[in-house]
Amino acid sequence: MRGFSFQLYSARNFPPLKSTLARLSLLGYEQVEGYGGIYGNVEALAADLCEYNLQMPTGHFDLSKLENNPDACIGIASSDSP
């Protein structure tokens, strides 16, 4: 991993996400870090990341989700999409 990554949770109160991604791209970021609130539609998220030339090599998951549904978390984390 190179460069800085922006933690998207920090901008959760400033929707829409797509505008945040656009701004981050303009600022020169190449990576972002996801969190549970944005994992609802992984395909759309991947498309937005691609549109703004961003990658998501890291992410946060709620502990209860990790404990109760680890397969879902593994699926998101191992996805080639985001």
Write a brief caption for the model:
This protein is α/β, with parallel strands linked by helices and 82 residues long. Helix content is 43%, strand content 15%.
Task: Please describe what this structure looks like.
The structure is a single chain. By secondary structure, this protein is an alpha/beta fold. It has one domain. It has 4 helices and 3 strands. It has helices at residues 17-26, 42-51, 63-68, 70-78; strands at 5-7, 31-34, 55-59. It has a 3-stranded parallel β-sheet with strand order 1-2-3, with no helix packed on it. The model has no long low-confidence stretch (mean pLDDT 90).
Which structural class should the secondary elements be placed in? Answer: alpha/beta
Question: Topology as H/E string?
Answer: EHEHEHH
* First-last Cα distance: 15 Å
Poorly predicted runs are none
The best one-word shape is globular
Q: Roughly how much helix do the residues carry, as a percent range?
A: 40-55%
Annotation, overall tally of beta strands: 3
Strand order of the largest sheet: 1-2-3
What number of structural domains do the residues give?
1
